[in-house]
Write a structure and sequence with these properties.
With 116 residues, the protein is an alpha+beta fold. The protein is built from four helices and six strands.
Length: 116
């Protein structure tokens, strides 16, 4: 079989870099708070949105204590939220798409919402 070779010119690289300058930055978490009284997380997103998430809907901390839930860090570039005491976290991209756990978890939440 022949060897496949990709040739990239300096012009190709310069054009790609120029296009990248005009690409919007992906959304990121700028700030996060846990409101214990309401048992919700409020995430301030770089694009101006606020994401409000009940703790019971987040697979990572649904069974955590309020103290464990309150102990969180924001990941690199605000791309995720991480709870070190439970060694779990969620990516912002997934939360913005409404995914707050694995497939089995999401099916459970959906059944719970239908029953309510």
């Amino acid at each position: 079989m022949g060897e496949w070779v990709l040739e990239t010119t300096e012009e190709d690289i310069d054009a790609a870099l120029e296009r990248a300058k005009h690409e919007p930055d992906p959304p990121s978490i700028l700030e996060a708070t846990y409101e214990r009284g309401l048992d919700i997380f409020v995430l301030k997103i770089s694009d101006g949105r606020r994401l409000v998430l009940p703790r019971e809907n987040l697979q990572a901390v649904a069974n955590a204590t309020p103290e464990q839930a309150a102990d969180f860090n924001l990941g690199p570039n605000g791309s995720r939220i991480w709870w070190p005491q439970v060694d779990e976290g969620h990516r912002l991209e997934n939360m913005l798409d409404g995914r707050t756990g694995n497939e089995k978890w999401m099916a459970k939440i959906q059944r719970r919402e239908i029953a309510a």
